[in-house]
């Protein structure tokens, strides 16, 4: 049996059913061991999975994508279409028309380079997202199995404690000498040890239960951003480049544009809007990744040590 399957099935309902408290005459050894060992295999695995998920929670490519989007968003408004306005005789003969055209072409080139740079980091993000998806989901499924196994241990322990408390009351009432009273006191103290242990296990389960939902939401948002960059935004950048490269070439030669500017201006403005939306989506994803990282880090901060 694989290690992941073995750890997740150690505390199955059938296994839990076998964990019956020993008779009240000999509770000490069983209770001491249970207080020390309750759920420790699952605790260890949850902590290990936390380390695995910590590496997968934060994209190594996303910061570069955020920077690329911000650079493109900052460059787009700088394109000055007024430089392509029809010039009179004096502008053409004095060379001002050619100078304005060269400036427009330079602005276009800076934006085109920013778009090309973004395309490269966007492809890296897509590859990362595709490579991480299956391993991350596998780790999350195992994490869910582990903390649910701990929850079953908590339920079993709580029922056992309730029965033991009732037995202790009966034993205390029937204790006729100091030795029996001392034994009752020691067993009561061991119950307190288990109560503390179960509280710590509950805190760990609470922390672990937050991670899968956050991680899956994070993965969905990352996949959506990767799709936007690879498909819709990449297509818009390509269309923008096709439209405006003709204008830039004419402007470089000092010629009046042969195409109507309205369509190019509209494409440019639409690209600005959609790049702005992608910037916002990227910022939200970065914030969500930071929140997920904090939730995963909380697993390691839980004061639950191996028994």
Overview of this structure, please?
The protein is mainly alpha-helical and 307 residues long. The chain has helices spanning 3-9, 13-18, 28-37, 40-57, 62-75, 89-94, 96-174, 178-252, 261-301. The longest helix is centred in the middle third of the chain and has 79 residues, at 96-174. It is rod-shaped, with a radius of gyration of 33 Å. 28% of the residues are buried.
What attributes does this structure have?
single chain; 0% strand; mainly alpha; rod-shaped; 307 residues; 9 helices
Indicate the low-confidence ranges by residue numbers. Answer: 1-25
* CA-atom Rg in angstroms: 33 Å
Number of strands: 0
The SS-based structural class is mainly alpha
Helix content bin: over 70%
Tell me the β content. Answer: under 5%
Distance between the termini: 24 Å
């Amino acid at each position: 049996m694989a290690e992941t399957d073995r750890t997740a099935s150690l505390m199955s309902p059938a296994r839990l059913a076998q964990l019956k408290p020993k008779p009240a005459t000999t509770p000490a050894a069983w209770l001491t061991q249970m207080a020390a060992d309750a759920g420790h295999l699952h605790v260890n695995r949850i902590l290990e999975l936390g380390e695995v998920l910590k590496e997968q929670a934060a994209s190594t490519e996303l910061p570069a994508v955020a920077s690329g989007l911000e650079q493109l968003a900052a460059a787009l408004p700088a394109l000055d279409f007024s430089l392509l306005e029809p010039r009179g005789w004096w502008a053409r003969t004095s060379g001002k028309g050619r100078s304005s055209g060269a400036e427009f072409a330079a602005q276009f080139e800076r934006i085109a380079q920013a778009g090309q740079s973004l395309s490269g980091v966007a492809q890296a993000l897509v590859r990362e997202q595709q490579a991480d998806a299956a391993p991350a989901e596998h780790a999350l499924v195992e994490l869910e199995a582990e903390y649910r196994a701990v929850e079953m241990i908590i339920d079993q322990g709580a029922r056992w404690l309730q029965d033991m408390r009732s037995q202790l009351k009966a034993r205390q009432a029937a204790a006729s000498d100091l030795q029996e009273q001392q034994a009752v006191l020691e067993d009561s103290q061991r119950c307190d040890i288990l109560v503390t242990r179960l509280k710590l296990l509950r805190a760990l389960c609470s922390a672990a239960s937050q991670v899968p939902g956050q991680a899956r939401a994070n993965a969905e948002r990352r996949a959506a951003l990767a799709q936007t960059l690879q498909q819709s935004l990449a297509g818009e950048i390509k269309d923008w480049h096709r439209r405006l490269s003709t204008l830039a070439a004419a402007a470089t030669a000092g010629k009046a544009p042969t195409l109507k500017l309205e369509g190019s201006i509209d494409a440019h403005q639409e690209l600005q809007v959609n790049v702005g939306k992608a910037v916002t989506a990227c910022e939200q994803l970065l914030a969500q990744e930071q929140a997920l990282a904090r939730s995963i880090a909380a697993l390691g901060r839980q004061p639950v040590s191996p028994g």
